[in-house]
Amino acid sequence: xxxxxxxxxxxxxxxxxxxxxxxxxxxxxxxAVPRASWPVxxxxxxxxxxxxxxxxxxxxxADGTTLGLGGPLIAVHDHRAFHSRVGTGGLIGFGExxxxxxxxxxxxxxxxxxxxxxxxxxxxxxxxxLRGLWTQRQPHTQRNTPDGxxxxxxxxxxxSNDLFALFLDETLSYSSAVxxxxxxxxxxxxxxxxxxxxxxxxxxxxxxxxxxxxIGTGWGExxxxxxxxxxxxxxxxxxxxxxxxxxxxxxxAGYEDRVSIELCDYREAHGTYDAVVSVEMIEAVGAEFxxxxxxxxxxxxxxxxxxxxQAITMPHERMLASRGTHTWIQKYxxxxxxxxxxxxxxxxxxxxxxxxxxxxxxxxxxYAETLRLWRERFTDRADDVDALGFDETFRRLWTFYLAxxxxxxxxxxxxxxxxxxxxxxxxx
Length: 428
Fold this sequence. Notes:
The protein has 18 helices and 13 strands. The chain is of the alpha/beta class. It has two domains: 2-135, no CATH class; 142-422, Vaccinia Virus protein VP39 (Rossmann fold, 3-Layer(aba) Sandwich). α9 crosses α10 (221-228).
């Protein structure tokens, strides 16, 4: 059993990097440390010690105790709060503890990469079997129904166009780029993003006169590049902020006669198209709705048409183990989100559509590099983030999110795919 301690997180911690207490109104679960009973803290400490002493990390506690085989440093400033959060909230508590300033890592990506590489065996098998007893379940309110999807999308993508512009490149592309080599210079990011878009448009054979449906507008870069090829584009989004800026970019480019951007759920799409493209939107669909998502894409695609899809993926067994649980990313970054596996994508297409798989290309290392460049620019623009009204807890949240995601790709826990599916033309 847990209660809530009355002391605010990180208020007087001299050796932590926080400079202000957590705003309890904005971040109630970060501001208050859950009070775990002594047995919960003791078991948590024992499980963590067992796991960490076998990892290439150096976990240093404020009393001088260290764990691990050596490697990236994790400095725990408040072990009681850290164990209480992890013991009662698991990985959500681990993330909230970072947001509160209770632990830090000079090389955050390096530390998280080690943890991501060992994600499957951090918890002993016996406790893994009891996972359902202690993990939080996904809130029913975050189901990706048409109304739920609008709310979920708004919570992330309607934060502020100015915020995203601070760390994205001038194309405002918020998905993996495709580079020519590593390490990539920040000045090459825009070209790498355009290369990614062009690869997808080539897969879909988008050319002069193509009727193209885009599911998930972003800030309009793909629609603009498709229009430049002479395509007629219908692009769907649920983000009012993104649509507003994307429309302005379309007007500025002079493509208003070729591009229509609709505030519309994919399930409300109509018409038929020669090609359909969707970039990293399936992660916001949810397993419950994968069948209707692919059925809709199939129905919208004309005979002989082509579907080009870019999707983040994770190992199938890890997806199955986590698909019903509530995660830190879902709570704070992408409510209702779920990353599929390649198996889940291919089974959904096979079982619910008449589409045929034609190509798949994984390029996870490129996403790790994309995230590195975003994270570094976000860090460099901290004062500008602050000027937009986002507080220190938000900055730590987004630093953790970007580093956590980068670590997933660097460890191989996550990958990203470009798929091509085709629809048979019975007349040919």
